[in-house]
Amino acid sequence: MNEDVVYVNITSEGAQLNPQTLDDERHATNMFLMWASNDTVMQLQVMSTNDKVKYYVNTANGQEWKEENAITVKYGPVFGKIPWSEAGFANERQAERYFNRFISAVPHHFIPNVDGESVFVFSRQRALEIMRNANVSKVVAGATWTAVIKRRNDYGYIVDVSGNDMWLPISLVDHKVSKPYELEIGEMIEIKITSNTTEGRIRRVIVSRRDAKPNPYDLYHQKYSTGVSYPAEVSSVSGRTGMAVLPGGVMVRIRQREDTRGTLRTGSHVKVRLNRKSEKDKMFIGDVERILM
């Protein structure tokens, strides 16, 4: 990665898209002033979350100097500061999770020659507001987007889409069997927004990485023939029925035959005889002949 690159985009916080190279401090200064004039949002890498910054603020009595805790970010060939009042984090622990990751920022103040060096002051809080307002009409069910993984647990992922938190369940990560923690924090992924609902003050948006990708059935179903048995991995179980995944990610609805020994479990490897295919559901239907493990 070129250390003198900043990523200019309002796609999602941390999205490393549209790189812009800053040649030196003079170039960085000129671009800072230009980007400040039109509220350009960029994604900058966090270098420290426990620094300080001294900058001036406009008051009724004129300009006054202010010093506060700050986050240090890499701005091309130089460093910038995000004052805690402009950081948009609930607490210091939340900010610490972003160490070495990219966060959204917009130019806020440029202060030349403070203690022998210029200070580039950014605002994350303002950047997130700009992103959300610019994309509010685009974040609708059916839209595809580049998202960034923010947090993860055993059931799925919190992803950032245009400065908003959205939920990616494990079941919608891929067409194949997905395991918790398969995706990395900070990883960029393509998603499709599947639902966008509001109940009172609570907004719940669910996204799918699986539905943003080509369906494996369309790509590989011609490799499989009905009446033939193939290995598969069970992805979900309900009694003696469930879903399994053939090599290549093609889904098959399965039923355990009465004479098959063993118990179906998620993650089990089985031998499935394909009986027929459903073009409507883009999957095969078959019987489990043998549970391999």
TrEMBL record:
Superkingdom of the organism of origin:
Bacteria
The GO terms describing molecular function are: nucleic acid binding
PROSITE patterns found in the cross-reference section: S1
Q: Which UniProt keywords apply?
A: Plasmid
Recorded protein name is Uncharacterized protein
Q: What's the source species for this entry? A: Alicyclobacillus acidoterrestris (strain ATCC 49025 / DSM 3922 / CIP 106132 / NCIMB 13137 / GD3B)
The lineage is: Bacteria, Bacillati, Bacillota, Bacilli, Bacillales
